[in-house]
Amino acid sequence: MQQDQLLDLYRDMWLIRAFEQALEREFEQGGVPGMLHTGLGQEATQAALASQLEATDCFFPDHRCHGINALAQERHKGDGERIMAELFGKSTGVCSGKGGSLHSADPSVGNYGDNAVEGSYMATVLGVALAAKMRGEAKVACAIIGDGTVGRGEFHESLNMAAIWDLPVLYACVNNGYAIATPVGEGHASADIVDLARGYGFPCEQVDGNDIVAAHEAVGKAISHIRAGKGPYFLEFKTWRWQGIFAGEFRPEAEVKYWREDHDPILLANDALEAMGVSQAQRSAIESEQVGRIEEWITFAKESPNPELAKATADVYVGWEVASS
Ligand SMILES: Cc1ncc(C[n+]2csc(CCOP(=O)(O)OP(=O)(O)O)c2C)c(N)n1
Ligand SMILES: [Mg+2]
Predict the structure, then answer these.
(1) pTM beyond cutoff 0.90
(2) How far is the CA of 179 from the centre of ligand 1 (A)?
(3) How far apart are alpha carbons 298 and 90 in whole angstroms?
(4) 116 C-alpha to ligand 2 centroid (Å)
């Protein structure tokens, strides 16, 4: 990978990390409504996907994808701050503050949104892919799912149908080792999800999701395959989420140390940049620039107005406004 490209991805990863850390801080102070699942630790996987999906593609983010959502806004419309505002429930958010973390969507940048039912969009993604195929569009329809989703029936139905109809689907399975607190090897017949996907007969690959160079290359290869009309592709990203589900750490100390200190995606990219001769000062400047930018997004979100009551049902029901009493 060229130095400029790695620097761009490093910048993207820092945007995600700064976003999630600032959001976590604000959440703890009570400023962010609802629940919060962060993508901390998964920045390389997210940057690899966000940097290569076009606005005319489609992706269904999962509950840890604030980073991908923000990067998609930023890259295609230059308004990443609207994802932050959405998480704060403000009227300037991409869904006017009514979507929050799980329902942030903006199809104009390819973001078709998540919902609270894990795995449900494994079915929906087929519809987008089938429509694209029937219209002759070179669209990639991407479903970003956690390892936990693999236990849902829709996972297998989706892979099977994509295979027999040869649909342009990119399955991006983020295997962070746990669903809630269940280790992946206890919840599924294989701890390597790629083994379960292989039976459907299309290309499947497992990649180190914390290695931005490897993750970026794998996504590029998968997208080229799909755009060439060769059907679906499955990628399993091995990664780890910093955030547990409950307060306190439930994972073994050595495991935490490995992922947070020895195999952190940003530190790995930092080392790769150092090896390319990028100075510490330049790397630190990227970090400060992104941290500063995110603080501006936080201010924007905090200072934005709440949604108006009169618009509470707008865009909720198609062609039907509910009168507010
Ligand atoms: C159908 C369904 N079952 C259960 C839940 C509750 N739930 C929310 S997150 C989660 C675990 C998801 O694990 P995984 O897909 O591995 O994602 P991670 O949080 O590890 O990124 C569960 C079971 C849900 N949202 N939907
Ligand atoms: Mg998981």
Answers:
(1) yes
(2) 6
(3) 11
(4) 15
